[in-house]
């Protein structure tokens, strides 16, 4: 997870775009997750709290427990933005986060849909400030985060 994969200009674009969104992390996170459920409704059952299954994305998106999850996701993004100069320091944390996601049944393939949803949120919330250069910078950052999280995926033994 090399910090050098992002140029100084890309780090600046990421920081500036994130600063514009930092005042309303839950609101922006809800845009991300609304898009995620639109793109892949089959992810909804992964979000259960106290064994309660949500009947609809809208029910999930308004649940206090889910809003806590949204806050946590936005904090992970914030940590990545805050450590752009030293992304390797987050590697162990992200690897463990990957393990947690695997344990609840998240498939590695779902990260591409989450990435699409992140870019959608950035585009919707930044408007004209979401340039092709901003998109490329965020795509690189997200790729580095996912690469670290994928290291937490243990191959399951045959028969599991």
UniProtKB/TrEMBL annotation:
One of its GO terms (cellular component) is mitochondrial matrix. It comes from Aythya fuligula. It comes from the Eukaryota. It catalyses: Fe(III)-heme b-[protein] + nitric oxide + H2O = Fe(II)-heme b-[protein] + nitrite + 2 H(+). It is found in: Cytoplasm, Cytosol; Mitochondrion matrix. Belongs to the globin family. The gene is NGB. One of its GO terms (molecular function) is heme binding. Residues 5-154 form the Globin domain. Keywords: Cytoplasm, Heme, Iron, Metal-binding, Mitochondrion, Oxidoreductase, Oxygen transport, Transport. InterPro entries: Globin, Globin-like_OT, Globin-like_sf, Globin/Proto. Transmembrane segments: none annotated. Monomeric globin with a bis-histidyl six-coordinate heme-iron atom through which it can bind dioxygen, carbon monoxide and nitric oxide. Could help transport oxygen and increase its availability to the metabolically active neuronal tissues, though its low quantity in tissues as well as its high affinity for dioxygen, which may limit its oxygen-releasing ability, argue against it. The ferrous/deoxygenated form exhibits a nitrite reductase activity and it could produce nitric oxide which in turn inhibits cellular respiration in response to hypoxia. This is Neuroglobin. The keyword ATP-binding does not apply.
């Amino acid at each position: 997870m090399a910090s050098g994969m992002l140029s100084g200009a890309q780090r600046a674009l990421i920081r500036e775009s994130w600063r514009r969104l930092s005042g309303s992390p839950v609101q922006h996170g809800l845009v991300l997750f609304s898009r995620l459920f639109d793109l892949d409704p089959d992810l909804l059952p992964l979000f259960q709290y106290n064994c309660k299954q949500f009947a609809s994305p809208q029910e999930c998106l308004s649940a206090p427990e889910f809003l806590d999850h949204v806050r946590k996701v936005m904090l992970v993004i914030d940590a990545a933005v805050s450590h752009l100069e030293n992304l390797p320091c987050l590697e162990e944390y992200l690897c463990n986060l990957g393990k947690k996601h695997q344990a609840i049944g998240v498939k590695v393939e779902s990260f591409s849909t989450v990435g699409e949803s992140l870019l959608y949120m950035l585009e919707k919330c930044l408007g004209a400030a979401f340039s092709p250069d901003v998109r490329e910078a965020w795509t690189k950052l997200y790729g580095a985060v996912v690469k670290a999280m994928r290291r937490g995926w243990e191959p399951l033994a045959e028969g599991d």
